[in-house]
Request: fold
Amino acid sequence: MDIKQYMNQVGQQARTASRVVAAADSGVKNSALLAMATAIAAHQSNIIQANEKDLDAGRASGLDEALLDRLALTPARIDAMVEGLHQVAGLADPVGAISDLNYRPSGIQVGRMRVPLGVVGIIYESRPNVTIEAASLCLKSGNAAILRGGSEAIHSNQALAACIKEGLQAAGLPDSAVQVLETTDRAAVGELITMPEYVDVVVPRGGKGLIERISRDASVTVIKHLDGICHVYLDDAADSDKALAISVNAKSHRYGTCNTMETLLVAESRAEDLLPGIAQSLQNKGVELRGCPRTRQIVSALEASDEDWATEYLAPVLSIRVVSGVDEAMDHIARYSSGHTESIVTENYTVGRRFLREVDSSSVMINASTRFADGFEYGLGAEIGISTDKIHARGPVGLEGLTSQKYIVLGDGHIRQ
Reply:
């Protein structure tokens, strides 16, 4: 296969299809999504057989158990994909929504209309259910999609691609509205991220290495986040019960997610009061603690290094630092945060509002676990990923994040004087 020629063809087809999808009404897009759901349910056995090929190949190549688990498609996970398609079909369609319409002194009306981005390229690893999530969100938001899954999931993704194609055809939309790449050649990624004439934005979903490479080499706009170094700060005015519950949940609810707390900051005035109970609860769950000198005077912990403050563990490991107060906490966050999610636990309204205003991350919280930083929990229905960029989309990227706005002007023969 000539990769450059193949990708050029895929890009051309996606660009052509994007105009059709952008013009499609909500009913047509929802029909396609529901038809995809029906196809997946009907072809469940074929999907599982294809997935078994990927799992067998993964075991033979030495994939670890965590990656094999992410790769596996069980009947329950397939049911979840079907349910997800129904949920996206039920979400409000952002395309065409008009906002801020008002009259100007000249007599014209000026407003903004939400429109699709065009062609969205999505690059991801391991989890084949991302194929359906990405396809559904791109289609509902009026975009054409080019999907490049990991080589370890090629059979699973192609089986799902057949269901996507069936759904598009049933709704009268072009097959090329969602294209799942048929090659595992890494050169295809290099082509995808350097085709601005065909691709409007790229969303990488995977490890830090993948995202760094795409961010470095892409000539197409990238929506991304590299790390999830999330902080919880326990303020002088923190409620003890809330501090314990939020700290334990933010760290131990799930270890391998980007919205998991990696560093706990504690005000010096509350450290002896709060840390023993939190440390005991986390150690009972098998979490390894690494602390600053003051932390280690209060609880049993390994010595934390500068590298620890800048590390996304994605594991049952937590770094803890005692700080003088909110100013030092925010200074620490400004230095080490990846801009993902930070939370303060406090009953002081003024301090809480200051934390919200001054901490520069995509999600900032008061008295809530960082684990809530998620498109579903934010009411977006689903998300394509998290963005820590500051332009266009920031935070969980749902349907609205896959659109932009253009200005519209309504006149009645008006001319500028």
